Amino acid sequence: MSSAGQVTVTFAGSGDAFGSGGRYQACIHLRGPGAAPVLLDCGATSLTALRRCGLDPGEIAAVFVSHLHGDHFGGIPFLILNAQFAGRTSPLAVIGPPGTARRLAGLMECMFPGSWRARRRFAVEIAELRPGASVTAAGVRAAAFPADHPSGEDGPALALRLTLGTTVIGYTGDTAWTDALVEVAAGADLLIAEAYYRAKDVPYHLRHADLVAHAGRLASRRIVLTHMSADMLDHLDQVRFETARDGLVLHV
Ligand SMILES: [Zn+2]
Ligand SMILES: [Zn+2]
Predict the structure, then answer these.
(1) Which pTM does this prediction carry?
(2) Ligand sitting nearest the alpha carbon of 44
């Protein structure tokens, strides 16, 4: 069944950890039908990235975190503190891999001492997802799959499959190729895939060559690449898939 156009996907941040190409770190803004928007990852630069796109961080109802690296969750303290200063009262859900509660608390206390323990007028509702589990937050169903990428001592990184209304969006997060991605992509309206390097053998990351090799098994309606290093960005003419850029808006 077609669900074209139901969800607006804005790549507020389409970059890697190191600002390659002048791009912001991972932050994908999803606005489903009749619902508050949610984020897929919230890297350290994400508040700036959202504002650059004219998107209000105060509207975000939930953040779905693929893994606990700074370029994927390092912006959450700014999101929480900004909300606090703006007088937010509606809860903010944070859904991430095992260790999300402990690592987010530590991150906030490291960056802004006292900020995690401070009284807030809104709840930060944290849910930790193991691969194979799923949860619904802010009206979005999230199913977690195992990624081959470090996330910390508490547990594995995740690939995610989100359902907004009838629209399904798969997201690899950072991961080496794993057959779990076949399930993440299966029947999805959109697969957002990391493509860090073209073919260089880097551990724990997806390469364009991996996606080309497995393209026949990735049964999503559409594939868009993100999290690209300079090696990819300097050779976009050789890339066989659609590629994201900061500010790209899709209707899926
Ligand atoms: Zn990353
Ligand atoms: Zn990472």
Answers:
(1) 0.97
(2) 1
